[in-house]
Specification:
This is Probable glycerol kinase. It catalyses: glycerol + ATP = sn-glycerol 3-phosphate + ADP + H(+). One of its GO terms (molecular function) is ATP binding. Keywords: ATP-binding, Glycerol metabolism, Kinase, Nucleotide-binding, Transferase. About 35% of the residues lie in helices and about 20% in strands. It has 17 helices and 23 strands. Helix 5 crosses helix 6, helix 10 crosses helix 15 and helix 12 crosses helix 13. The structure holds adenosine-5'-diphosphate and SN-glycerol-3-phosphate (G3P). SN-glycerol-3-phosphate binds next to helix 10. Adenosine-5'-diphosphate binds next to helix 11 and helix 12.
């Protein structure tokens, strides 16, 4: 329900800042139709194997351009400035920016979520918690043998997980900030002297796009730092101490739907007028946009990576199967916190992009569907693109990409199809893990189909393979831009345009359903082969002295 007069149209702008591009989309709040949009791709920097960086200034400039262009298009379409009520931001998560408090200039290129340069930092953190545990054992007289035989949840890293919901991994922003402080003395000095600020991309954009220079983040982004107490939604003093990070450089943690500041600096007619009133990590925004608003509802977003999330209500459910316990959203300063289980797969669209840009065996990512469809199967080829190790549910930083099963019969179409299939195998593993965790918590999946979105969900063959390998229907919504829609919905709530969640739920409509077309026997056989292929990818990065992360 909305409190606005239904006769007068009302719009909300979403800024979706993703791993590969930034887009601004203006939604009509009555039915989620797109009134105007603009998109820009930013540069990916790969300075060393495993390192991935973004230029935060470039991202900011493109965000400004996207907003300006959409504003101009809206004006041309006769949409008045007054009818646009708010801005919502959805962002790639964990990507870490450090900037100068005064000038607002970044001190380093942003370390992207999938960058794995922090493996040594993670190992050192693990050793530190292990060492602290040894020290405690010596004090309490508990023997190492007794400790080894203890329940696996007695491991110190598991207690870390209990506080944050996360494993110690290269993925999370606290580890990236620690790496920057350990390896760049100018960043360390600036952080310790209080002249530098840290933030994920939401905080960075809010600082530079608000009149007030708001240094804030929302609970969903904060829940990806490894620094937030998930229950209390506060920075955790013990964790900050373990990382050597002063709280003064961190943003204030807010809800996902409230007014953070007023838009400025874009050079368009909306400057000084529009409140920025919604902020969510992009996967959390997609949950809202997919109307996964109550316990047991699930969505999967296929972008650069692929992220499946299941809503667990107002309860943080621990995972015994390698999933993350994370914030789902908190839609209002006085609203309750909602939690989710998440399985993050590092390489989805990025794999197709790699086939196009690096191997050049497809002309474009869009061509991948047609090429893969030219063969009926992969010819028993399996591709494990563990470029940054494997994320959920295995969390193995020592895995590396591998292709198995090739013969002289193998053609590029088999490889392309195998690249699509691997996304679906990984997603299926994650959904099964989530089902088990839910069951252990006395909960169950609710939708009788998986709701899907993201750039890669436009690939119909991928969606069909997904339904086949899951053994359940896959449903794509009419608004493919679920992430942007979720950010807009949060902003509509934050600005008082929507007065309850029903207005958000009402925006969801099905576009197409994909139903499974293979039987259980074939499904199980293919999953077995996939598991064998994954086994072969593990432990490849041993020359670095790697061990698997917890
Ligand atoms: N038709 C397609 N088939 C396969 N992959 C695609 C297709 N269209 C887009 N992609 C992939 O989806 C990703 C872009 O999706 P998007 O949701 O915009 O990602 P992000 O938010 O991570 O930037 C790219 O990695 C691209 O390779
Ligand atoms: O930008 P996307 O869609 O690849 O999402 C990135 C995730 O937020 C990383 O955790």
């Amino acid at each position: 329900m909305t409190d606005t007069n239904s006769a007068s149209p009302c719009y909300v702008l979403a800024l979706d800042q993703g791993t590969t591009s930034t887009r601004a989309i203006l939604f009509d709040t009555s039915d989620a139709t797109v009134a105007a949009s603009h998109q820009r791709e930013h540069r990916q920097y790969f300075p060393q194997p495993g390192w991935i960086e973004h230029d935060a200034e470039e991202i900011l400039e493109q965000a400004r351009e996207c907003i300006r262009v959409v504003c101009d298009k809206a004006c041309e379409a006769g949409i008045s400035v007054e009818s646009v009520k708010a801005v919502g931001i959805a962002n790639q998560r964990e990507t870490t920016v450090v900037w100068d408090r005064e000038s607002g200039r970044p001190l380093h290129r942003a370390l992207v979520w999938s960058d794995i340069r922090t493996r040594e930092t993670c190992r050192a953190l693990m050793a530190e918690v292990d060492g602290a545990e040894d020290h405690k054992r010596r004090r309490t007289g508990r023997t190492a043998a007794a400790a080894k035989g203890a329940d696996r949840h007695d491991h110190p890293a598991d207690r870390f997980r209990e506080r944050t919901g996360l494993p110690i991994s290269t993925y999370f922003s606290g580890v990236k900030l620690k790496w920057l402080m350990d390896h760049d003395p100018s960043v360390r000095d600036a952080i310790l002297s209080g002249s530098a600020l840290f933030g994920t991309v939401d905080s960075w954009l809010l600082y530079r796009l608000t009149e007030q220079r708001a240094h804030v983040t929302d609970v969903t982004n904060a829940s990806r730092t490894l620094l937030m107490d998930l229950q209390r939604q506060r920075w955790d003093a013990q964790l900050l101490q373990a990382f050597g990070i002063p709280e003064s450089c961190l943003p204030r943690i807010c809800s996902s739907a409230e007014v953070y500041g007023t838009l400025s600096g874009t050079g368009c007619a909306w400057d000084g007028r529009l409140p920025i009133a919604g902020v969510l990590g992009d996967q959390h925004a997609a949950m809202v946009g997919q109307a996964c608003l109550h316990v047991g509802t699930a969505k999967c977003t296929y972008g650069t990576g692929c992220f499946l999330m299941v809503h667990t209500g107002e309860r943080a459910v621990p995972s015994a199967h390698g999933l993350l316990t994370t914030a789902a959203f908190r839609l209002g300063a006085c609203a309750p916190m909602h939690y989710a289980l998440e399985g993050s797969v590092a390489v989805a669209g990025a794999g197709v992009q790699w086939l196009a840009d690096h191997l050049q065996i497809v002309g474009s990512v869009k061509e991948a569907e047609q090429v893969a469809a030219s063969v009926p199967d992969t010819g028993d080829v399996y591709l494990v693109p563990a470029f940054s190790g494997l994320f959920a549910p295995r969390w193995r930083s020592d895995a590396r990409g591998t292709i198995v099963g090739m013969t002289q019969f193998t053609r590029r179409a088999h490889l392309v199809r195998a690249m699509l299939e691997q996304v679906c195998f990984q997603t299926t593993e994650v959904l099964r893990a989530a089902e088990s965790d839910l069951q252990q918590a006395g909960l169950a999946l609710e939708h009788d189909a998986l709701r899907v979105d993201g750039g890669m969900a436009a690939n119909n063959l991928l969606m069909q393979i997904q339904a086949d390998l899951l053994g359940m229907p896959v449903v794509r919504p009419r608004v493919g831009e679920a992430t942007a829609l979720g950010a807009a919905a949060a902003a509509a709530i934050g600005a008082g345009v929507f007065t309850d969640m029903e207005a958000v739920r009402a925006l969801w409509q099905q576009e197409r359903e994909f139903t499974p077309q293979i039987g259980a026997t074939e499904r199980q056989a293919r999953h077995r082969r996939w598991s064998q292929a994954v086994e072969r990818s593990l432990g490849w990065a041993v020359e670095d002295g790697d061990e698997d992360e917890k």
